[in-house]
Amino acid sequence: MSPRGLVELVVNGEHHGVAIEQQRTLLEVLREDLDLTGTKHGCELGECGACTVLVDGEPHLSCLTLAVEAEGHEITTVEGLASADGLHPLQDAFADLSAAQCGYCSPGMLLTAKALLDSNPSPTLAETKQALSGNLCRCTGYAKILEAIALAATRMASLR
Amino acid sequence: MTVVEEPRADDAPVEAEELSVVGKPLRKIDAEAKVTGRLRYADDLSLPRMLVGKLLRSTRPHAVIRRLDVSRALALPGVHAVLTGKSLPIPYGILPVSQDEHALALEKVRYVGEPVAAVAAIDEETAERAVGLIEVEYEDLPSAMSIPEALRPDTPRIHGEGDGPNVDRVAALEFGDVEAGFLEADHVREDVFFFGGNAHMPLEQHSALASWEAGKLTIQSSTQVPHYLHRTLARVLELPASRIRVIATPVGGGFGGKSDPFSHELVAAKLAIVTNRPVKFTLTREEVFYAHRGRHPVLMEVKSGFTTDGRITALSFRNMLDGGGFGSFGAATTYYTGALQGTTYRLPAYRFEAVRLHTNKPPCGPKRGHGTPQPRFALECHLDKVAEELGIDPVELRLRNAIEPFSKTVNHLRITSCGLVECIERVVEASGFHDKHGRLPHGRGVGFAVSAYLSGAGLPIYFNDMSQSEVQIKVDRGGGVTVYSMAADIGQGSSSVLAYIVAEVLGIVPEDIAVVTADTDLTPIDLGSYSSRVTFMAGNAALDAARQMRDLVVGAAAEKLEVDVAQLTTAGRRVFDRDDPERCLEWEQAVHAASALRAPLVTAGTYRAPDLAGPFKGSGVGPSPAYSFTAAVVELDCDVETGAVTVDQVWVAHDVGRAINPLLAVGQTEGSVYMALGEALMEELTFRDGLLESTSLFDYKSPTVLEMPEVHTYLIETIDPEGPFGAKEAGQGPLLPVIPAVANALHDAVGVRIDEVPITPDKVLKALDLAARGKPGRVGPKALPAFDFPPLIHVEPPEEALR
Question: If B756 and its partner were Cys, which of B111, B300, B364, B780 is the partner (CB 3.0–4.6 Å)?
């Protein structure tokens, strides 16, 4: 058995101490130790983007990230997008336009889109496509996802 | 980006009634659960004391198992049980005619990846180590990895005794006199096409969690068909079905790939019983490719006769299907490769012969369009060639032969509402097809094609005279409504569609409704989410149940208000006099009135498709209570230096009957276009030395957002007389015309024909090179291998088709 070590993770602003083996991925620890099953897996090889989480605001593939690497960084999962005030504008837009069909890629899509809009509040279509190019969706043909991100960007701009 | 046009005035529903829920772009009832990550898919579930299961899979394409020793695996600390084929000896299969699978291989293996043994252990790492400790000795047999290899007389039989060929199914039907039709024709043309096999690639890997408590098995699985899984578990485990509860969890993408009972489901159940602990199996991405049931590779020979003015006199198809190692849905697929050609065109005579072969590859099954995208690709490319030879515009050729509403096809399929011509006109006009076809610069082209698809298979998978969908409705005293249905929501929004229908009838809003689905303990029968059947069939059952509930509540309100019941209507959570809206009861008050008079407030609705099967063997595949119709135009660019094809725009018009929710119908259409483009241009399962090469999402190429063109979607509403509120399907049909439209557009762009899917750059370059050397610029199969098809069964076309 690999030696276990105590790792302190900050996930959605909450501190969690978990005793884990060093080789465990952030994906496994989020899902299996913290029961944050909103983060999905589709390949465990970094090919599909379903496991995307934000690490210090940047999209990372949690299946290719060791949990120990994430120590000392701010991790955001889909569970951290909404607040007590309600859904994040991206979540609202995805729900309004039915950009989540089966919904399995949605957590990764939402977090990738959040990172995009946080750094570029009014991206062009080409910029949005470039940002999403590592996230596969098998249901929507991406159309409603692109529309939802554009809608969220517009709504967020009007709030500012 | 997508352009969705509002329906024009001439598309206006024929019914004048005002609808307040149906037809509106509402949120899905599970939208918030999906965007917050709260929705629990199968692998998100866990139970106390849960064990993790892993499968040992065959490393040989075709071999006899000489020795299988699990003792070292069993001895590993943390391992609780190991199963082999002998643990589950009863065969099964989704179709009653194909009971050829075992949960774990017995005696021999038929493809690389076939499950051979299973382990339940304390955690994933231990289970994987245990799988590695299982010893297997194989005696290799020669394998068949393609249609020609399966047919070689010296290839051993993959199933049964004796030497090849490895024939699983045959079909041979003739409607009318095809040879006479060819003789009568001014122009006869023959073409050969090949459609490569591809995979569903759902983003969610299959997963199942089984538990055993007090003599009852519960399995929660990402399945499209809880009812068929229920039946299979009872058969294989030899348990009464009443001791088994199947819950279909929200499915993270199905597309037909979760419609078979799978090894891991049966094995999880058996291991839960054996260990008396919950057991979960989640397939890896590589294993999803082995579980497969994807698109059959099909080799097709098409022949048609036409008059000089472009009227078809006869059509024939000869199809060879590469079925992989097991039957799966293949007997149905075989017939589907011939069933729907006549749903778009009036055929005076039609012949269809097919053979499905066993090969040493993962089993093929139903993928979006089930057996019909392959012949549709062949037919629509063939018609483009015919049009060119006859000097007739390709759109005009289709219009001259288009099937009419409320007619019958040559093979006895009943057509009801039909917006084929409207679909054609809409995409041709919107795309400017006639300004572009043959007129764009070299390298750029447009292509056109049409199609039709089922709104639910008319017959259940196993013959019975029971209903195909039932829905129960219960109203509680707070006015809340619960709808119960076994239909599995696989992302298409079927649960929401049921809520919209019930809300519309009762005059309430979807937020008043809870939908309980896909649980064999709690919900009444629905056969499953396949063949585009749920909106039509479960929707009709929901409509039936809702109308009964409305009658109960409105009847009580009429007594309370002392008005004639015919005066009352429901809307906006009120029951009111249509001529005097102030005379009303709030929904909750009306519910109380009904409860006082007629408690309990429970109704049940049902649906069974009318008997539409024709008078011949094999007529069970193809009938549907209604057909959707689609037309598509594709505009693309071909780089003649690299052979790369870039699709720039797609226009697609789909006759959906009525869009219960246009957002969902458009979403299904866009998703179908996407999946079609993947199949047309890149998706393919490739094998080398018996091994599947494409077992990851890097190797199995699918379109990313960067490859997706602009899609212009037009919903055509024809208000089907039997569909719920006139609705028909939208989930599968729109995929069909896009693939041949790509091939036809490529021909328009650079003058070459790729008669083989996927149309990859190497094939394009090869065809361009051939054309440059003065040879026919074509890549594709030349002929079908020799095979003696059985004698034709001759069937008289229905009188309606001959008019």
Answer: B780
Q: Find the CATH number of the domain harbouring A33.
A: 3.10.20.30
Give the rounded distance of the alpha carbon of B508 from its chain centre. 32
Q: Quick one: which of B467, B470, B469, B474 has its CA closest to B552?
A: B474
Q: Give the rounded distance of the alpha carbon of B422 from its chain centre.
A: 25
A29 near A67, Cβ under 8 Å?
Answer: yes
In this predicted structure, the answer to whether residue B4 has a pLDDT above a threshold of 50 is no
Q: What is the pLDDT of residues B452-485, one digit of tens each?
A: 999 999 999 999 999 999 999 999 999 999 999 9
- Residue for token digits 């699709």? B647
Report the residue of chain B nearest A49, measured CA to CA. Answer: B203
Phi, psi for residue B248 in degrees, rounded to 5 = -85, 120
Query: Which of A22, A36, A61, A102 to mutate to test binding with chain B, by most B CBs within 10 Å of its CB?
Result: A102
Total domains in chain A come to: 2
CB B542 within 8 A of CB B471: yes
Tokens read off for B553: 């509540």
CA distances from A24 to A18, A66, B77, B770, B800 (A): 11, 6, 21, 54, 67
Last residue of a domain, one of A15, A48, A80: A80
Same domain for A71 and A107?
A: no
Same domain (yes/no): A152, A103: yes
Q: What's the distance, CA A153 to chain centroid?
A: 17
- A·B CB contacts under 8 A: 173
Question: For the segment B17-60, what is each residue's pLDDT rounded down to a tens digit?
Answer: 689 999 999 999 999 999 999 999 999 999 999 999 999 999 99
| CATH number, domain with residue A154 | 1.10.150.120
Closest by alpha carbon to B237, among B100, B97, B89? B89
Contact call for residues B206 and B267 (beta carbons, < 8 A): no
CA distance B362 to B294: 9
**Hey, CA dihedral for B404, B407, B410, B414, is it positive or negative?**
positive
Mutate to test the interface with A, among B1, B3, B36 (most CBs of A within 10 A): B36
Q: What angle is formed at CA B547 by the lines to CA B542 and CA B552, rounded to 5 degrees? A: 125
All domains of chain B in start order, with CATH: 49-141+205-251+258-291 (3.90.1170.50), 298-459+614-795 (3.30.365.10), 467-607 (3.30.365.10)
Nearest CA in chain B to A126: B706
B234 Cβ partners below 8 Å, 6+ apart? Answer: B240, B241, B244
* Number of helical H runs and strand E runs in chain B: 20, 35
Which residue range forms the structural domain that includes residue A105? 89-159
Q: How far is CA B752 from the centre of its chain?
A: 31
Tokens standing for residue B207: 């997963």
- The DSSP bridge partners found for residue B101 are B92
Residue in A closest to B489 by C-alpha: A102
Name the domain boundary from A63, A80, A97.
A80
Interface ipTM: 0.98
Same structural domain, A69 and A96: no
